[in-house]
Write a structure and sequence with these properties.
With 205 residues, the protein is α+β, with helices and mostly antiparallel strands. It has 2 domains: 126 residues, PAS domain (Beta-Lactamase, 2-Layer Sandwich); 49 residues, no CATH class. Helix content is 36%, strand content 18%. The chain has 6 helices and 8 strands; from the N terminus they run αββααααββββββα. Strands 1, 2, 3, 4, 7 and 8 form a 6-stranded antiparallel β-sheet that branches. Strands 5-6 form a two-stranded antiparallel sheet. Strand 5 and strand 6 form a beta hairpin. This is PAS domain-containing protein.
Length: 205
């Protein structure tokens, strides 16, 4: 029996896995892999992996193809499994040609050796970590917004204090029902000036 006779078993196994030839042509794809990458078996089987899953030109900083190629080359050279760091690798949007859908993965490449110890197949296993990475990004953005807001508030407070100190006449900011100043002094229970007290004998200007 040829190993390829077991493709129906490979395709039905749980987990998102891709079966590659030593020259990285797609031979099989599990149902979970197809669901995760939003594609169909008939579309990708027989294609070179980087033809089926090219780089997203709008995210060149991801270096997705280059990173996966380096991992596959490592597997061919060492004949050992290679687990990659999390990768930003968008997948083609099959409903809108030329467009991509954001995806983040935890990939692992495992060689399948023949009787002579040569690489016969490479299995790519991926875990979709898109939701986790997006949540982490949203948290960072929220923290950045909060930090920026605090910086603006501090700048405004500093500017107000400067104006207060440089004013040519006496100024004060009263807060609360007891008319407390920013220095902690309150008008409750004492006069603010002789002119504010009836019968003091002083005439307001």
């Amino acid at each position: 029996m040829s190993p390829l006779d077991l493709l129906p078993v490979f395709n039905a196994q749980p987990g998102a896995t891709l079966l590659l030839s030593p020259d990285w042509v797609i031979l099989g794809a599990s149902d979970d892999y197809l669901a995760a990458t939003l594609t169909e078996r008939a579309i990708i089987v027989g294609q070179h992996i980087f033809d089926a899953f090219p780089d997203n030109p709008e995210t060149p900083e991801a270096n997705a193809v280059a990173n996966v190629r380096a991992s596959l080359e490592t597997v061919l050279a060492t004949k050992q499994p290679h687990e990659m760091a999390p990768q930003h690798y968008d997948v083609p949007d099959r409903t809108r040609p030329g467009r991509f859908i954001e995806r983040h993965w935890q990939p692992r490449h495992t060689p399948v050796l023949d009787a002579q110890g040569q690489v016969q197949f490479i299995i790519q296993s991926v875990q979709d970590i898109t939701a986790r990475r997006q949540a982490e990004r949203q948290l960072r953005e929220s923290q950045a917004r909060e930090q920026a807001a605090r910086a603006v508030a501090e700048l405004q407070r500093t500017e107000l204090q400067r104006v207060y100190q440089e004013a040519p006449v006496a100024m004060g900011l009263m807060r609360g029902p007891h008319l407390c100043t920013g220095m902690g002094k309150c008008a409750h229970g004492r006069h603010l000036g002789a002119a504010s007290r009836p019968g003091s004998g002083s005439t307001p200007l």
